[in-house]
Automatic annotation (TrEMBL):
Keywords: Membrane, Transmembrane, Transmembrane helix. It is found in: Membrane. This is Uncharacterized protein (TIGR00297 family). It is a multi-pass membrane protein. The keyword Membrane applies. It holds the Pfam family DUF92. The keyword Chaperone does not apply. It comes from Halolamina salifodinae. Its main location: membrane. Coiled coil: none annotated. The chain crosses the membrane at residues 12-43, 63-82, 94-114, 121-146, 158-177, 189-207, 213-230, 242-266, 373-392, 398-419, 431-449. Belongs to the TMEM19 family. GO terms for cellular component: membrane.
Length: 450
């Protein structure tokens, strides 16, 4: 066993301390604090240092990586089981805490073990996700069993298999995405990211159904394989897309996912449509149209917020239809903008949206009537599908018009921002985000007025 594998085995062993939470209660924070303090201030040499030291730790002479990981686990432990003297209106469920810590520790070990044989980023990050998922699933089950046994300091509310499965998949994907974006050795950031996502999802009262979870996992596996085989997204783009699909299916439902998948499918096809011609004209997407993290979030972050808002609507004095329409309006804007750019880029003599003057193809803010028509048709298609899939309590013609109008508003905002501030002040991903926000808000406003 080489040094890296030994080190990650040691970190995985430290992460397993989270499983003692049902037994130790609020005292779970103490062993993590002790490890953090010893790593940062006491251990300078010896077997422990050689076991846990990262390359940067050898330079500083301190186990800062271990200290940061243990400290992040201690913070989550405090949120999961605060001392009796601390008033807490809401705490992280103990199974979610255990899953957050163990996912990162065991997932990293799984990725390292496979990296000894395979040197491919997609395969390695997949190994992290699989190992993290299995570890999170087993950790939650064990914590529930301990919490409801005579040895537990307090009972843990029974958690159904669909919920723990969904939480395990969520933890694995968030951990894998954070690890891919940052550093494989940055366990502290990955643990915080997983813990934050588990805290938010755990606060929702939305019931989780096994059929939806099974569908979500099947879709996640399928999309991962297709993405790897076709190269339609970067590793980060693949992870964020799969995570988005998982949350959408479980918190929204299959109808929401079908609408989301329609956007991604048609968007990808439109990008690939006559790609060589667009490349010659200088208007093609980079990396042969492969979607990255920024592209996925720019187009779908508002839709994700709408799904989470819908799941929380039972605890809020808000009509759930507003979140349904916001979801559809944001995707209509994203669909309209994508089709207008990809189709419009094939035609000559675009005009700048702000002045009407002719500009070269590919100019930010330049539009063609063919592109605008394609975008409007795409937005209307989203409206039609939304009326069939999202169960909005509005007549179909009204809903189609509202969503299409929201899509048109988002397309217009995208063009205006492209002609005025894109490039010099903000990036394309931010423009997409603001455009989808405009589409969502416009659709919701029109629904309220109607």
């Amino acid at each position: 066993m080489n040094r890296t594998l030994k080190r990650d085995t040691g970190f995985a062993a430290v992460s397993l301390l989270a499983l003692t939470a049902p037994v130790l209660g609020w005292a779970t924070v103490l062993p993590f604090l002790a490890i953090a303090g010893a790593a940062a201030f006491l251990i300078e040499e010896g077997p422990a240092f050689e076991l846990f030291a990262r390359p940067r730790d050898w330079q500083s002479g301190r186990l800062y990586g271990l200290a940061a990981f243990a400290l992040s686990a201690a913070v989550l432990a405090f949120l999961a089981a605060p001392p009796p003297a601390v008033a807490a209106t809401y705490t992280m469920p103990l199974p979610a805490f255990a899953a957050s810590v163990v996912t990162v520790g065991v997932g990293t070990l799984g990725a390292t073990a496979l990296r000894e044989r395979v040197d491919e980023a997609f395969i390695i990050i997949s190994a992290f996700a699989v190992a993290g998922f299995v570890a999170a699933l087993l950790a939650q089950m064990l914590v529930v069993a301990l919490g409801n046994s005579p040895v537990g300091v307090g009972s843990v509310d029974a958690v159904g298999l669909p919920t723990v499965t969904f939480h395990a998949a969520l933890a694995a994907l968030v951990g894998a995405l954070t690890r891919s974006l940052l550093s494989a050795d940055d366990r502290a950031a990955a643990t915080f990211a997983v813990g934050a996502s588990m805290l938010v999802i755990g606060a929702l009262s939305q019931p989780v159904h096994m059929v939806d979870v099974g569908l979500a996992l099947g879709v996640a596996l399928f999309l991962g394989i297709v993405t790897y085989a076709t190269g339609t997204a970067s590793v980060e783009g693949m992870l964020s897309g799969v995570l988005l699909c998982l949350v959408t299916i479980v918190l929204g439902g299959p109808g929401w996912f079908a609408l989301l998948l329609t956007f991604f499918g048609l968007g990808t096809l439109s990008t690939k449509f006559r790609y060589e011609d667009k490349a010659q004209r200088g208007v093609a997407e980079e990396n042969e149209g492969a979607r990255g993290l920024g592209n996925v979030l720019g187009n779908a972050a508002i839709a994700l917020l709408a799904v989470v808002g819908f799941a929380a609507a039972g605890d809020l004095p808000v009509d759930p239809d507003l979140f349904r329409v916001a979801f559809a309006g944001s995707l209509a804007a994203a669909m309209g903008d994508t089709l207008s750019s990809e189709i419009g880029g094939l035609f000559d003599k675009p005009r700048l949206v702000t002045t009407g003057e002719r500009v070269p193809p590919g100019t930010d803010g330049g539009v063609t009537w063919q592109g605008e028509l394609a975008g409007l048709v795409g937005a209307a298609l989203v409206g039609v599908l939304a009326s069939m899939l999202l169960a909005v309590s509005a007549p179909m013609p009204w809903l189609v018009a509202i969503v299409a109008a929201g899509g048109l508003a988002g397309m217009t905002v995208d063009s205006l921002l492209g002609a005025t501030v894109e490039g010099d002040r903000i990036e394309n991903e931010t423009v997409n985000l603001l455009a989808t926000l405009a589409g969502a808000l416009a659709s919701v406003l029109l629904l309220l007025l109607a």
